[in-house]
């Protein structure tokens, strides 16, 4: 909606971009106009090693319903996965950091 | 009848004397042609913005769109540069003013310029158009296309966008054309009412066109929000405005 508001989440993991795999550092997330997807508004997730640099980056633009489905499926996969591997993620919430920037 | 244009990337001198990439298009011929500086929308210096530059050239203008996120990532693709800019809180207002003035100066130096330069911006560029038109005397006419946050509460101001452009209305320089969709939520019709009242209060020359059945960004042919009838009419309003204020003898 023409705002600069974004959510940010620190990440540990890997992503595969145009030049291969790279180490993830942060995701920027916002619901606003897309660059490419043919919708008026999308949920954009910019996975990046460093948000201050243009390289090592993967962008996903999802319409509202797609974003909701993805969130639900991620939650379900995490829940079932944790159930299948008990004891590995007892301190999950201590590692979660989300901040809003605007 | 022969028609032709040149469209290419050029480098201009922007805010702080920085080199800034810009996309420029002009009709072939000796001119003189009026100029237009186009401030692209928040998603970036994208294909649609460059199409709009060529549309102005097709209609007899030398048009230029500075890459407002160039500094964030000089050698990157425009979408990656936009992502970096967004993460940083957007392009700073001061820099936008300097880049817009630099683009206008670039146009006026061209041997085929008629000396007149208009400004137009879309989405965040609409807000920036309002802002630049209040802080600069470089333009002869301005067009704000659905700029959100011209009206902004204190908690919407940031370090990079520290002022509500509305508060600067008394300093507005060039005649302003406003294009808005009545289904838009940024700016809302109420925001547009507030802006219009402020322009009236300061006796500014302006003309607003507010379209029913249209929301935000209704010029974008690749989005569901495209409204062909309203967009066609509004483009005609834009060219009429520039025809009135940017013609050689105006």
Number of helices of chain A: 1
Give the helix/strand class of chain A: alpha+beta
Q: Considering DSSP H and I runs of 4 or more, what fraction of the residues of chain A is helical?
A: 10-25%
Give the overall silhouette of chain A.
globular
Q: Summarize the helix and strand pattern of chain A as letters.
A: EEEEHE
The fraction of residues assigned to DSSP E strands of chain A is 35-45%
- The gross shape of chain B turns out to be globular
- Give the integer mean of the pLDDT values of chain A: 87
**How are the strands of the largest sheet of chain B arranged?**
1-2-4-3-5-6-7-8
Largest interface: A-B, 27 and 40 residues
Number of helices of chain B: 6
Oligomeric description of these chains = heterodimer
Poorly predicted parts of chain A: none
How far do the termini of chain B sit from each other? Answer: 27 Å
C-alpha Rg of chain A, in Å?
15 Å
Order of H and E elements of chain B? EEEHEHHEHEEHEH
Topology of this structure?
The complex is a heterodimer of chains A (102) and B (250).
Chain A: E1 6-17, E2 20-32, E3 42-48, E4 57-62, H1 64-84, E5 98-101
Chain B: E1 5-13, E2 19-27, E3 33-39, H1 47-58, E4 62-66, H2 78-87, H3 93-109, E5 113-122, H4 124-135, E6 141-145, E7 176-181, H5 189-201, E8 206-211, H6 228-246
Parallel strand pairs in B: 3-4, 3-5, 5-6, 6-7, 7-8
Antiparallel strand pairs in B: 1-2, 2-4
Helix pairs in contact in B: 3-4
